[in-house]
From TrEMBL:
One of its GO terms (cellular component) is nucleus. Its cofactor is Fe(2+). This is Nitrile-specifier protein 5. InterPro entries: Kelch-typ_b-propeller. It comes from Carpinus fangiana.
Amino acid sequence: MALAQGKWVKLDQHGTGPGARSSHAIAIVGQKAYVFGGEFAPRVPVDNKLHVFDLETLTWSVADATGDIPPPRVGVTMVPVGKTIYVFGGRDVEHKELNELYSFDTCTNKWTQLSTGPPHRSYHSTTADDRHVYIFGGCGVEGRLNDLWAYDVADHKWVKYPAPGDKCKGRGGPGLAVAQGKIWVVYGFAGMEVDDVHYFDPACEEWTQVETTGEKPTPRSVFSTVVIGKDIFIHGGEVDPSDLGHMGAGKFAREVYTLDTETLAWKRWDDGPDSSDHPGPRGWCAFTGGKRDGKEGLLVYGGNSPSNDRLDDIFFFTP
């Protein structure tokens, strides 16, 4: 069987960008990528500017934002629904876990603090469909969490879903994805790197742990995730944590894998013959799904490297 091949492209950057950072977040609306949060030195939030990268001109700018501008934070997540970006949680400069939900209107450049929602957390995971923002897991005040929440952007209400129970342990840095009407939790760090896969079906409000086959990735966390069709793509991640915890660099992976949510089979992707660029091993990146030249793919920006240096490059992967 021929190996699946994808292509990485390293994007040029013009203008003054956010610089090297990890534990930050990125979201694409139209042809612009919005970057918020992150750290250059471990656990120290860099800034609370909203940096904007034009995917056509490859030029950086800073949004002239108004309204309820969120304070600086690390371990934060953001997702777009339509032309609005939603930002949740993270950890502030005093290392306190946060639980406010903010929206940023990309048409008016206005921030709005919407509500406090799920319990305080950082290094959680967020995904969205066309009506809901989903939050799962992360590091809470009392330890790692395994709760799943949905924010209805039309009704402006939070819903807490049933707990998954002991099978799906509390974890930080998992993959979270909506595919085929189900919400998938992939891997993560639960005191150690884990390789279990679960999904929640909102229709029957039930959790299921699945057995996967194929070229299964090793246990990992803080990897990049995107859904294309029925496939969940993951790239990189931490496969062996540092003895120094968040202050050091663990061992990172560099490959791309997909999980087919119908067959539950994993597949590893190789670089195509004309793919000279590759982000290499990394984790704690900002990542998002997007389109380039009309093709869906994964955008990866920055992150942490095996040398514990923060990165400032941008790559786009197209399967």
